[in-house]
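Much of what follows relies on a compact textual record of a protein's fold. The record below shows the convention in full:
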Amino acid sequence: MRLFLLAILALTLAACASGPKRPTTADAALTVDPIALGASAAETENLSYRIGEGDTLKVSVFQVPDLSFDSIVVDTAGNLQLPLIGSVRAAGLTPVEITSEVERLLAQRYLRDPQVSITVVEAVSQKVTVDGAVTRPGVYELSGRTTLLQAVAMASGPVKEADLRSVAVFRTVGDRRMVAVFDLAAIRNGQAEDPAILGEDVVIVDTSRLNAAMREVVALLPGLAVFAYI
């Protein structure tokens, strides 16, 4: 697990080094509006997320309630079982791709210009890495909406010596790496918002456990709970 984390950090630093040189001052991290980030991350997730076995989808066919489902699960073979068109491959496709495929199949024999919308309701195949000063570091599956507190709880919580005021969340949006630091103690006490964790996030409790280069990057962040590009 430690090797996995070090590999992630090494890739992050390599990406930073390969781009345009930035001065080692406070402008090395570009501040991002957390509200705008949440919207863009959700949009990116919908466009790029690959559906997996066990995921729950919502299927809506405009003006055809018999073909619409608020909840339908991708079976163990990676398929959706739908009326009229039968088994449709879903695993490995994005929501946009499976939507286009279902529209194509319905248009072949059953509907004229079908309008289909397929979204992921529960993505059990997404994972989060939790490391640092936690009881059980590891990679955990996300089931539905998961917050930072819940992600840390998956790792059986922080150890006694953990500094809960510095919990880093690394995230990739599009092809860009981002990081934010959160005060887990304040979140626990209801003094700060508990942020949502997305698939493939890396959570590190107690940023003192980062290597020196990454601690330097985190130190340049403009404040708590604000994501910045690195």
User: Anything to note?
Assistant: The helical segments are 2-18, 34-48, 95-109, 148-154, 184-188, 212-219.
